[in-house]
Amino acid sequence: MMNNLTRLLDIALPIVQAPMFGVTTPAMVAAAANTGALGSLAIADLSAQKSIEQIRATRQLTAKPFAVNLFVHTIPPITATLREQYTQTKSHIEHLAAKNGLTVKLPELDAIQVTPYQDQIDAIISEQCRIVSFTFGIPDAESIQQLKANNTILIGTCTSVAEAIALEEQGIDIICVQGIEAGGHRGSFIGLPQIGGFSLLPQVYDTVKTPLIYAGGIYNKKSMQAALALGAQAVSIGSLLIASKESALLPFEKERLSTVKEEEVVLTRSFSGRFARGIHNTFIQALEGSDYILPYPYQNKLTGELRRIARAHQDSEFVNIWLGQSIQSFSSASTAEIINQLTK
Ligand SMILES: Cc1cc2nc3c(=O)[nH]c(=O)nc-3n(C[C@H](O)[C@H](O)[C@H](O)COP(=O)(O)O)c2cc1C
């Protein structure tokens, strides 16, 4: 079970609890860490203050190392065109929600708060976090230098060989290879690659020297062993944990998982402006391919209030339920039990 990567991360198992913003809780991260896996605290684009609160809440529950995971995305400037598009999209989505029985007032563009990832990096350094993972890009050179000066281990996400090379060139310590199967957001930052994990992982392994984690479709011991045989030194498990005891999903969302069919698991830009994999529903049906999708993070911020209200109404047609292609029984057991099951 031990290898260079587990030793580098000071973990006992070649397993990473995947960062899953909206699903991961401090309790899940701590449970994974206490079991000997690498827990990953997803802070997406939370404010620096909220990021610190989450880090401290996790530290209350574990003394083990865990990764803090952030969205490294360049924020597009607000132009006159974006303002116009925002107004139209806001109105379109409000009408769509009203037609479907949900009264929502979405935020004005000037009211939304967007956190540059550099603010979070300052917070992470001040909290002395040892491991930082990221998706959607590569931190700028200054941020990398700052993190490395603080002895931080960096884990980047790639969805193609080109992205793996780019991460290695910037001195990223570990690369997480994300196959097209994976649930949640695609980590892509060079074009829109859509490569299956079994094609991508061995190619990345043959191309770079950086140690690899594999993410996408791992749902039992056999799939874990397959990824390890293809060159990964650890696997990252996401969907396997979404219905776990420590997951932040609400009961109606967990219930929806139990009836999902394979044709319902789709890639969509409609909730956030970036491609993510989840369960098809009325909202995706209405928006996908339409003009009412703003670039990330604006779409994400715009739809946040809709999702909040839909959740309060237990309306699975207007929330994003992310999951990967490996449909399974979605165990409600504890994170520790699910991880231990993989190693038996
Ligand atoms: C609900 C959900 C939320 C996710 N959020 C994040 C995130 O915040 N950061 C990230 O790097 N990856 C995120 N991902 C991707 C996972 O880290 C991981 O790549 C993926 O779950 C692996 O595929 P699997 O779901 O088939 O196990 C998310 C995935 C899911 C299912």
Automatic annotation (TrEMBL):
Name a biological process GO annotation. Answer: response to toxic substance
Database matches in InterPro entries: Aldolase_TIM, NMO
UniProt entry keywords in alphabetical sequence: Detoxification, Flavoprotein, FMN, Monooxygenase, Oxidoreductase
Source superkingdom: Bacteria
Q: What reaction does this catalyse?
A: 3 propionate 3-nitronate + 3 O2 + H2O = 3 3-oxopropanoate + 2 nitrate + nitrite + H2O2 + 3 H(+)
Requisite cofactors: FMN
For this UniProt entry, the molecular function terms from Gene Ontology, in alphabetical order, are: nitronate monooxygenase activity
| UniProt similarity note | Belongs to the nitronate monooxygenase family. NMO class I subfamily.
| Classification via PANTHER family | NITRONATE MONOOXYGENASE-RELATED
Q: What is this protein called?
A: Propionate 3-nitronate monooxygenase
Source organism (scientific name): Chitinophaga silvisoli
| Lineage, highest ranks first | Bacteria, Pseudomonadati, Bacteroidota, Chitinophagia, Chitinophagales
